[in-house]
């Protein structure tokens, strides 16, 4: 897969989360990427949030979903949970394992 | 101060968004969200272009802040309601910044843009036209901003609160996990700092937790000594502005400062002590 569409509007000295997550470098290199899309009935969910939780269930990061329902995180290797929040009270968790140099894909249907 | 002095909810905004004397401001690092839809009558402030000096790493000066607010049509008497994405990080930073330059009547929309979106409230594209004003700012209030020498001197003496995620605190990550990991600085935290991630102060929907929950979080769980002065920091100072807001505005702690240089400065300083691992 080519991965979700993302905003490139993030800078080295910034800290915010662009919708969909920061762009994935051409070479994943030493990053442990977690990414995916949120859909409802096969259609993208463009309004909502993806949260990354650590093994203890603690919050680590959050991005607003992209216009295609996409999200991306740059995690450390290990077990994580992606939590999706969306209008209508959607609150859905998906487990994922991240590995250095790999892209872990998480598709979430709500 | 009590919550009604510093926070409003979405119902309040919907009831007052057309009132004269109310200025609603969306603040973000990436303002493209504003352009795709914002609360009716809200103007935007770009955290980077509007609030940071374009050359030096510092704020715009007093005259620059006066020019910005005058141009955006905000007057000294306006009630300024700030909100934004990223769980109000940049809105909380702007709140701290407005206070730094002496604007007293400023409040945060609890839950920010996220709760507004999750509640499916109205967002519009129309940009309001506010007549220009002649805004007068005060000199910076040094009692709420910490600079690096003060931070180094505070090690082991004051409360230092590192509000980054546990992985950033320990040195395993150098940036939040929604960003590629950078390599230009050392990982870890300021010795003696307690790690209380900003996110523990917020509910999933971005609203602040109750005063009782917050007091228990920083006191009983994290072991902050409320009798001591406190400095909060993160990576660039906006997540710690969120925690500054909690400690100084919601919990009424005196002498709380935000260290806006934060880890991107401290982790690059030559010769300062750094602790790695999960801390004490």
Question: Which properties best describe this structure?
Answer:
heterodimer, A: 110 residues, mainly beta, Immunoglobulin-like, four-stranded mixed sheet, four-stranded antiparallel sheet, 8 strands, globular, B: 280 residues, alpha/beta, Oxidized Rhodanese, domain 1, 2 domains, five-stranded parallel sheet, four-stranded parallel sheet, 11 helices, 30% helix
Describe it.
- The complex is a heterodimer of chains A (110) and B (280).
- By secondary structure, chain A is an all-beta fold.
- Chain A has one domain: Immunoglobulins (Immunoglobulin-like, Sandwich).
- In chain A, 0% of the residues lie in helices and 48% in strands.
- In chain A, the strands form 2 sheets. In chain A, strands 1, 2, 5 and 8 form a 4-stranded mixed beta sheet that branches. A 4-stranded antiparallel beta sheet of chain A has the order 4-3-6-7, with no helix packed on it.
- In chain A, a hairpin with a 5-residue loop joins β3 and β4.
- The two termini of chain A are 21 Å apart.
- Chain B is α/β, with parallel strands linked by helices.
- Chain B folds into 2 domains: 138 residues, 3-Layer(aba) Sandwich (Oxidized Rhodanese, domain 1), CATH 3.40.250; 123 residues, Rhodanese-like domain (Oxidized Rhodanese, domain 1, 3-Layer(aba) Sandwich).
- In chain B, the strands form 2 sheets. Chain B has a 5-stranded parallel beta sheet with strand order 1-5-4-2-3.
- In chain B, β8, α10 and β9 form a beta-alpha-beta unit.
- In chain B, α5 crosses α10.
- Chain B is globular, with a radius of gyration of 18 Å.
- The mean pLDDT of chain B is 95.
- Classes of the chains: A mainly beta (110), B alpha/beta (280).
- Chains A and B meet through β3, β4, β5 and β6 of A and α6 of B.
């Amino acid at each position: 897969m080519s991965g979700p569409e993302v905003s490139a509007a993030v800078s080295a000295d910034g800290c915010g989360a662009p919708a969909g997550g920061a762009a994935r470098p051409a070479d994943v290199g030493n990053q442990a990427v977690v990414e995916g899309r949120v859909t409802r009935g096969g259609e993208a969910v463009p309004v909502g949030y993806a949260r990354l939780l650590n093994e203890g269930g603690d919050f680590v990061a959050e991005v607003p979903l992209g216009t295609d329902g996409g999200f991306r995180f740059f995690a450390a290797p290990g077990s994580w949970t992606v939590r999706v929040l969306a209008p209508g009270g959607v609150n859905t968790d998906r487990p994922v394992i991240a590995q250095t140099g790999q892209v872990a894909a998480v598709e979430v249907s709500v | 101060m009590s919550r009604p002095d510093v926070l409003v909810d979405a119902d309040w905004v919907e009831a007052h968004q057309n009132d004269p004397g109310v200025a609603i401001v969306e603040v973000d690092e990436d303002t493209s969200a504003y352009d795709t839809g914002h609360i009716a009558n809200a103007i935007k402030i770009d955290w980077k272009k509007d609030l940071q000096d374009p050359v030096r790493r510092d704020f715009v000066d007093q005259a620059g802040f006066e020019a910005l607010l005058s141009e955006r049509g905000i007057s000294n008497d306006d009630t300024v309601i700030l909100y934004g994405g990223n769980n109000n990080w940049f809105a909380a930073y702007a709140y701290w910044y407005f206070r730094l330059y002496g604007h007293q009547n400023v409040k945060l929309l609890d839950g920010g843009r996220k709760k507004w979106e999750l509640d499916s409230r109205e967002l519009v594209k129309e940009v309001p036209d506010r007549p220009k004003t002649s805004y007068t700012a005060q000199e910076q209030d040094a009692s709420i901003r910490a600079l690096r020498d003060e931070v180094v001197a505070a090690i082991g003496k004051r409360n230092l609160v590192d509000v980054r995620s546990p992985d950033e605190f320990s040195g395993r990550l150098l940036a939040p996990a929604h960003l590629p990991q950078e390599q230009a600085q050392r990982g870890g935290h300021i010795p003696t700092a307690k790690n209380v991630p900003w996110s523990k102060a917020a509910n999933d929907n971005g609203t602040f937790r109750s005063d009782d929950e917050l007091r228990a979080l920083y006191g009983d769980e994290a072991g902050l000594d409320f009798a001591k002065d406190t400095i909060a920091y993160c990576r660039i100072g906006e997540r710690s502005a969120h925690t500054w807001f909690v400690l100084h505005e919601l919990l009424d702690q005196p002498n709380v400062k935000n260290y806006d240089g934060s880890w991107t400065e401290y982790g690059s300083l030559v010769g300062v002590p750094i602790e790695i691992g999960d801390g004490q």
